[in-house]
Amino acid sequence: MKRYYDIDPLFSEARRLPMEVSIEQVQGFLATSSQHTGTSKSWFYSLNFYIMLGLLITGAIALLTITSGEHQFTSAKTSNPPGLTLTELHSKDIRIPEPKAEETMLAFMPAGEAAGPSKQPNQLTSAPSALEENQEVGTKTQLEGTVAKTAQETKRSFIKDSLSDDLLMDDLPLTDFNGGGYSDLPVTDSEIAFMITNETTSEEVARILGEGRKTNVRISNIKVKHNRTGKIKVMKIAFAVPHTNAACDWKVFRTVELKGFKTYEYGWTVDENGNIIDFWDKLNNKAPSEVPLPEKACGKVKYFCNN
Amino acid sequence: MKEYELIHEGFTRFCSSRCYGIMDTEDLVQESVMVAFENFEKMRERKAILAYLMRTASNILNSKLRRRKFHGFADEAAFEQLKSLAPNPEVAADIDLLYRTLRKLPTDTREALELFEIAGFSIKEIAEMKGCTEGAMKVRLHRGRKRLKEELTPQNAELTKLMTSFLLLF
Fold it and tell me: Please, which pLDDT band fits residue A143 given cuts at 50, 70 and 90?
């Protein structure tokens, strides 16, 4: 049988050994070292604190630099450089793919509705040359349409400026937006689209649209209703914008009522004389060919804009 | 400091055993307590200070041991230190033998034996500290004691005593 060494006395002796470090010694060196090196509460004075602070400041500066760079890039994409008109912009050899005429029209519509009947050929068009002109000025249209896509949830109505002043005056609570000449600045309807949201107050809308009017957008009608919290609940806006060529081609949309900015009810395209060349009913999801022209639509658009 | 006072004796004895031949007990205790003191505010539970101290001491020793590979153990100096504390040289030799033999055991087993047998902590406290059940700790202690006895069997012990006495001559 194997005989084991008795280890218990060894452990007993080890336990009885006097301690090499007394509690007083520990207290002593703790008091001494805390005077020299500080405790955890002196984090403010430690080197790590300043290293972390430096890193944070560097990171914040880098973030700000990157963010401001992106902002400039975005601004350059969504709006024209200051001091440049559309003509000047295109003369600077900026290559933008030529869009098709149908895509151009769809660019002003919400994404969910873009695949709707408006893609179909326009059978009501009495002046097909208008679409051809659309193609010719596709580059400019693309510029506007691309920007407008980013604000597809915001609904707008485009009314020919000749209709706006006299026809919709009675619905216009904010007369400041009525009338006014166009400036030479490029169209900035995209900026309007960006800013109008469900949470926008009437004052903000007034300011936004007012700015828009100054930049070649003609405000013809604005009607805002508020809920109890003062936010927009129902909004009716109609304003006109020269689509591509103010002389002969206008995209005219009429938004009868916007609840949450989600529905176009009607849309028209008129020629330079205000005659309807396209019409569709988005609310009922009907193609232009299936939509009979309203009775009042005979002649000028202005007769049924109040429908 | 109040929390530390309760565990000071056990922790010091643990350090004495762990750092034997590696570094001075006072240095190890001092360094460990300093680290724990600096990070005291970060501790989730104040009761965990013992486990924190143990882990800190182990880390410091491991760091020393990595360098010690190139210098070897300073057993002679440690034994002289032990002799000054022990009531007589025989006891010092026994404790020296114990510490050297403990060094041969696996770390977990060694720590369990040091905490229970030398530092005097209860099995429950050690189990909480190590994050295991009391049953597992009992098994570990049993196997550790058995392994320690095997290491200290007469033929080994005689050899060790011979070496110790040889050292004592100098």
Answer: very low
β-bridge mates for residue A222, sequence order: A237
CA distance A167 to A171: 9
Nearest by CB to B149, from A5, A30, A33: name it.
Answer: A5
pLDDT of A56 reads 92
Q: Do A40 and B41 touch (CB under 8 A)?
A: yes
pLDDT at A101 over 70: no
Compute the average pLDDT of residues A193-208.
46
pLDDT at A132 over 70: no
B118 closest CB neighbour out of A11, A26, A34: A11
Q: Is A3 on the interface with B (CB under 8 A)?
A: yes
Handedness of CA B87, B91, B95, B96 (dihedral sign): positive
CB A62 within 8 A of CB A105: no
What's residue B46's pLDDT?
58
Confirm if A10 and B95 have CB atoms less than 8 A apart.
yes
The answer to whether the CB of A262 falls within 8 A of the CB of A153 is yes
Q: Backbone dihedral region of A171: left (phi > 0), alpha (psi from -120 to 50 degrees) or beta? A: alpha
ipTM of the complex: 0.71
pLDDT digit string, tens, across residues B36-70: 777 777 776 656 777 888 888 888 888 777 766 65
Better pLDDT: A274 or B23? B23
| Residue A246: closest CA among A118, A127, A102, A141 | A141
CA distance B106 to chain A (A): 18
| Cα angle, residue A121 at apex, residues A120 and A124 outer, rounded to 5° | 120
Token representation of residue A118 = 């408006």
CB-based contact B29 A21, cutoff 8 Å? yes
Say if CB A206 and CB A174 are below 8 A apart: yes
Q: Are the beta carbons of B137 and B112 closer than 8 angstroms?
A: yes
**Chain B touched by A41 (CB under 8 Å):** yes
Question: Is there a contact between A291 and A194 (Cβ–Cβ < 8 Å)?
Answer: no
